[in-house]
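== Sequence, C-alpha cells ==
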Amino acid sequence: MHLQQVRGYADIMAAHAGAATEAWRDGQEADVEQEMDRLTLSIVTAALFKLDSSAHAETVGETLPALQEIATRQFDRLIQVPEWIPTRENRRQRDLSAKLRGIVMAELLKRRAADAEGNDLLTMMVQASDAETGEGMTDAEICDEVVTLYLAGHETTALTLTYCWYQMARQPAIEARFHDEIDRVLAGRAPRFEDLERLPYTRMVFKEALRLYPPAYFMVRAVAEPFEMGGHRIPAGSVLMTSQFGMHRHPDLWDDPERFDPERFADDAERGWHKFKYFPFGGGPRICIGNQFALVEGPLILASIGQRYRFELLQPDQQVELEPQITLGPKGGLPLRLRQRSTGAGASTE
C-alpha cells in the first residue's frame, strides 16, 4: 500500500471515475453518497484484488451495504447480542459474510492453483511469508484481511468525496477555482498519477473535507503500559478514545474551524503542524494502511468527474445533517442535482 504500489492503480481509478459518469444526465437528481460508494467499491475491487468486477458487481454491491447496515445497528445498541445466538439478524449476517468470503476464496484458490504473480493485494498476500519462520498466511487469514479491506477501503473515501461535492455546491468561488485548475492542467484528458503535483488545489479540497468531515471520526486504543496524562494515572488495560472530529474542529487549533477552507492546506502547510492536529487516518504504528491509496484516489476522482459534471444544491438553504455511526455519514444520504459541464473532451460550458 506504499505510494509506488498505489501509483500502479492510478489509471484504474481515473478510468472507473470517468465510466461512472456515462450513465448520468444533465439535471438529474442523484444521491451523491450512493454514487460515490458504487464508484469506490468498483475501484477497490479492480485495483486491489483484480476481481472480475463485472461478474461480481451485483453480489458485492448487495452484500456490502447489507453487512454495513447490520453493523450500524449493532453499533447503536447498548447491549450486544452474542454472534452465536441464532437471531434472524445474526443468521443473515453469517449468510452475507459467507457469500462475500466465497467470492474472495474462489479468487484466492485460483491464484494458489496457478502460482500466480501480480501486483494486486490478494496475490501479494498469497505469496507473502514470515521473515523469521518462512510460513505463509492461511487461506482463512487472507480472506479475513481482504474482507476487512473491502469493508473499510471504499466507504471512507466515498464519504469524503460526497462532502467535497456538497461544499463546492455551497461555495461557488471554491468550485470555480477547482474547475479552473483541472481544466487548465488536464485540458479534457483523464488525469494521471503524475498530474497530482500539478493539481494542488484539488488535493487541498480533498484534505479539507477530511478535516471537517473525517469519515473515521474517532479511534480507540488499549493502553499497553501505565502512564500519567493530565495529572491522572492511566492503568494498563484501559481503553482510551480520541476524536478526529473534535480535534479537527477545536478552536484552539484552527481559525474559524467550522468553515470549509481548502487554503488551510496551501503550500503543504500540514508538514509544519503537530502530527495530531490533523490525523484523519489515525497515527502511530496502527495508522490506516490505506492512507496513500485514499490520497491518490480522492483527487483523481475529483479531477475525473469535475471535468464533466458539477453539482447543485436542491434548495439554496440545503444543509447536510451528520449521522455518526461506524463512519460519519450524511443522514438520509445527500441528494444533489447533476449539471453537465462539457459536450466534448472536458471543455467547460460555463
Strands lie at 29-31, 219-222, 227-229, 232-234, 239-242, 309-312, 322-324, 328-330, 335-340. Confidence is low (pLDDT under 50) at residues 343-350. The two ends are 38 Å apart (CA to CA).
